[in-house]
Amino acid sequence: MEALFRKFLPKLQRTSTKFVRDFIHQIDWERNRLIGIKGARGAGKTTLVLQYLKQTALPTGQSLYVSLDDLYFSAYRLYDLGEAFVRTGGQLLVVDEVHRYANWSQEIKNLYDDFPELRIVFTGSSIMHLERSKGDLSRRAVMYHLHGLSFREFLQIQQIASWPAVSLPDLLNDHTQVALDLTQTIKPLAHWNDYLKYGYYPYFLENKDVYAQKLTETIQLSLELDLPAVYGISYASVDKLKQLLVVLAESVPMKPNISKLSETLNTSRALVVEYMHYLEELGVLMLLHRDSFGITRLQKPEKVYLSHPNLQYALHQSRPDIGTLRESFFLSQVQPLHKVEYTEKGDFKLDRKVTVEVGGANKTRQQLAGVENAYVAADGLEVGYGDKIPLWMFGMLY
């Protein structure tokens, strides 16, 4: 355990709290003894929990951060570490990368049950499912999902602008005044294209020039390491997933022809749909259904998108289509907080109540004729009016 403290303390000291995502305040850290945070690789889970540890400022020895991909856990059990930690006065144990440790859920459950004085925070892949884990954590753990940076956070992390989040009702009802207030300080459209290219994951700060390469490598690691660790799928299946991703990246947004895709991959239709769900859980695809309530895992999606615009630049062989980028941006900003479904009229249905058509500055309501509670999300506008809302403003939702 001493070796783990030697690694943890310098890491905590190096952790900056100059920019802390609002997400940290959405977690009820104090009232929940067992908290889980999942998200795609690179979303910032490790930074978030280290920032929390730094803010709590517990006396040395009472908090500990460990990553379960550390070589330490090839020789020692997590449960034994937790037991020893509690006996030496430990109160808060943060366990990172849990999906990389075979028996993580059972041992965390046992720690939770055996040591009521211990608080545990664990993080893992976005494909992590408590209901499929060996230990029954679904009744014990409170789960949170950390998404990539919104456009608002992209501006904030670079100290370009510090704007409060705007709720969807306020955005729909009062977007003109909100835009007038926000644009007094900066011109958001001057930064929007940068966000589309490299702004979704915080590691763009390390080197913008190699961001696309790093994003591609991150997806590859998720496919080769995370999926086999969680689902136990074979490497042959991983190869099929890579082939599917290559095909979809060049075609989205698309209404998928499952039969044709199954022929291309030389696999069954059911597996093609299952593979799509894997890619959605990894944060690579967004699958839209006509009715997303009560859908089964084997149900064919109505339309398929890449889940955020950075993926268009990283995975597309040619210059991405501007219409695709707009729709991918809209989805990435809205989906973390609202249910998004496929609709025949317009592009997206939000929370079964609001219909949105996404387009350029000259987009009209023609495709929304006869649709109530419908809006146009228009690119190229700094300030909108009526039911025509600047597309960039949907990046203010979180």
From TrEMBL:
Residues 31-149 form the AAA+ ATPase domain. Pfam families: AAA_14 (PF13173). InterPro entries: AAA+_ATPase, AAA_14, P-loop_NTPase. This is AAA family ATPase. It comes from Dyadobacter flavalbus. The lineage of its organism: Bacteria, Pseudomonadati, Bacteroidota, Cytophagia, Cytophagales.
